[in-house]
Design goal:
This protein has 593 residues and is mainly alpha-helical. It has two domains: 223 residues, no CATH class; 272 residues, no CATH class. Helices cover 52% and strands 4% of the residues. The protein has a four-stranded antiparallel beta sheet. Helix 9 runs antiparallel to helix 10 and helix 10 packs across helix 11. It starts with 8 loop residues before the first helix and ends with a helix.
């Protein structure tokens, strides 16, 4: 053998000519020995080996390896990348420079980590990527077990990402784009973000090809890819690359309509995605104040079958009826001969859905009171350390804490819909007064400005809890619509201090690269908002003293004042200030997870 032989180490040791095939030479295969691979020719050269089997064996023996940071030092320059995407600075055990722990003054990319001697295969890297994405994306307190919406949502993402079934390339590209942009944004890694943009572009191109074929409308992977691309619209990096969130939502609606109810009902995966689609469609319908397409008789059987029948899905089922009421309100013409009857019919329908929404919340509190899960605490903002460290504007001094992310999300959905419904009812009362001089709603049914302000303040008070580190990107996304509606209200009522606060919060707390999608992005601040002379500082700061209105929004609720904050619980759960249930709640507030 020559001194600089390029053969494998075993052939060099045995001093025989090597076939030099990759990943293992044929001579080793013939002699029944494992090929140990090839020596690096020169210092600094890198050999790529398919080590999937070794990787799986190693991870099975030591599952904690994924969580340990790499000890390798950064090289002067990265080698040419041979994989679909580069691991670069990302490592499952490396903590990202999270914007909720350090103010996002400037980007701070992590150094590129030199690949260790035993490289993961592309398949292993993708599994590792998706696993880490789910930990960044999904709230930690959501179980992957059970039959609820949030558990099944987590399982749906995992199924799409880890399924071994062959599918159209638009889906894996869309999944790569979503995972890479989330992780790249967390790590401020431009390399990962650029790979995410490339994957997004490939997915769009592949989707266009797929949609040009009539049979693709019944393909679950095409529907799933469209849903994933819609989720990508929450990241600013994709805004200039493709359509907006609103356009994606409308495209999904057209695709589902072309597929039809029968085709959806024949696929378990399609049924699950249908529920996800109705959630996005409801947000768009509320935004546009137009009847939701899935609230019609055509889709009622599919919607009933797709619903998980837990608290959130039952709330969504009621919510789908709300946009049609808003549209009917906007179309009322008081000059029309039958407008009085139309108005009264609409008032009856609004009051009916209002009672159903409140009964649904009452049932939730009654059922969960036994497990200490039915409480809300209004506590000082300092209890939310990631939020209070980053947001220096103390316009809002107290925020809500809940027993779980799921409970908080159900209340946020309820309060948002109640705000839009009660605002509509107040407008209908005003119209009726114009039609019938001297008529007034009774005090029990009247809608006050203080009640509407409570709802809007509740949107803001939910934000510190939603953006806690353990709630991931899902927590960030849960804030966007709430802050948009709150900003509109404060702007209309010229509460400029709160308009400035929302802008400050949006700039400071969200993961870098995430913000409201096109269609609901807040407009620029007017000059008045930046001038303190236009704000009634005393009145606007007094908003912090507002708690629940006299008409209880939480039925059968008792108010308990504690050193940690004000706690609302069902009366039978906390009959006295010294009840064990209240003590457990106070402990949870003091030691948030």
């Amino acid at each position: 053998m020559p001194l600089r032989s390029t053969g494998c180490l075993k052939c060099r040791q045995r001093k025989i000519r090597c076939s030099e095939e990759r990943p293992g030479c044929r001579k080793c295969l013939v002699h029944g020995v494992a090929c140990p691979g090839y020596k690096v020719a020169r210092k600094g050269d890198i050999e790529f080996h398919d080590q999937t089997d070794q990787t799986v064996t190693r991870l099975q023996a030591d599952p904690d390896e994924l969580r340990r940071p790499s000890k390798a030092s950064p090289p002067a320059s990265a080698p040419p990348e041979q994989l679909t995407f580069t691991w670069a600075s990302f490592d499952a055990g490396t903590q990202p420079p999270n914007v909720r722990h350090t103010p996002p003054v400037t980007a701070n990319p992590l150094p590129h980590i030199h690949p260790p001697s035993s490289l993961h295969s592309p398949a292993a890297i993708r599994v590792r990527l998706y696993d880490t994405f789910l930990r960044y994306y999904v709230p930690r307190d959501l179980s992957s077990h059970g039959h609820g919406v949030w558990s099944s949502n987590t399982n749906l993402l995992a199924h799409l990402m880890f399924s071994q079934q062959k599918c159209r390339p638009c889906l894996p590209h869309a999944l790569d784009a979503l995972a890479l942009v989330q992780i790249g944004s967390m790590h401020h890694d431009r390399n990962l973000i650029q790979k995410a943009i490339e994957a997004y572009t490939k997915s769009l191109a592949s989707l266009r090809v797929a949609l040009s074929k009539p049979e693709s409308v019944h393909d679950d992977t095409v529907m799933a890819a469209t849903c994933m691309l819609s989720s990508c619209e929450f990241y600013t990096e994709f805004r200039v690359q493709g359509a907006s969130w609103v356009s994606h939502q409308r495209g999904i609606q057209r695709m589902v309509d072309a597929r039809g109810p029968a085709s959806i009902m024949n696929s378990k995966l399609a049924l699950h995605m249908f529920f996800q689609i109705t959630s996005g469609s409801l947000a768009l319908s509320l935004l546009l104040r137009k009847q939701d397409p899935y609230a019609t008789e055509k889709w009622s059987a599919v919607e009933a079958r797709a619903t998980a029948h837990d608290d959130f899905s039952e709330s969504n089922h009621l919510g789908l009826r709300l946009p049609a009421l808003l549209e009917r309100h906007d179309r009322l013409d008081l000059n029309h001969a039958g407008s009085s009857n139309d108005l009264d019919d609409l008032l009856l329908d609004c009051n009916e859905i209002q009672m159903q929404m409140r009964r649904r919340l009452m049932a939730l509190h009654a059922r969960e009171a036994r497990d200490d899960k039915s409480w809300i605490a209004l506590v000082e903002i300092e209890h939310f350390h990631p939020f209070s460290d980053l947001v220096t504007d103390r316009t809002m001094t107290r925020a809500f804490r809940f027993p779980s992310f799921e409970t908080a999300y159900i209340h946020s959905s309820h309060w948002l819909r109640m705000y839009m419904l009660r605002q509509t009812i107040r407008s209908l009362h005003d119209m009726r007064q114009r039609l019938i001089p001297g008529w007034r709603p009774d005090e029990k049914h009247a809608v006050t400005e203080r009640e509407l302000l409570f709802y809007v303040l509740s949107f803001c008070r939910l934000v510190p809890f939603f953006v806690e580190t353990g709630h991931g990107a899902t927590g960030d996304m849960s804030c966007f619509f709430l802050l948009y509606i709150a900003e509109q209200y404060f702007r209309t009522n010229k509460h400029w201090r709160w308009v400035r606060w929302i802008k400050h919060v949006s700039e400071r707390i969200f993961t870098k690269g995430m913000s409201m999608p096109f269609g609901i992005a807040a407009p620029e601040l007017p000059s008045q908002a930046n001038d303190v002379r236009y704000s009634d500082e005393k009145a606007e700061l007094a908003f912090n003293r507002i708690e629940f209105p006299n008409a209880p929004l939480l039925p059968d609720v008792g108010r308990n004042v504690t050193p940690q904050g004000t706690v609302w619980m069902p009366s039978r759960s906390a009959p006295t200030p010294t009840s064990p249930a209240l003590d457990r709640v106070k402990q949870q507030i003091s030691s948030p997870g």
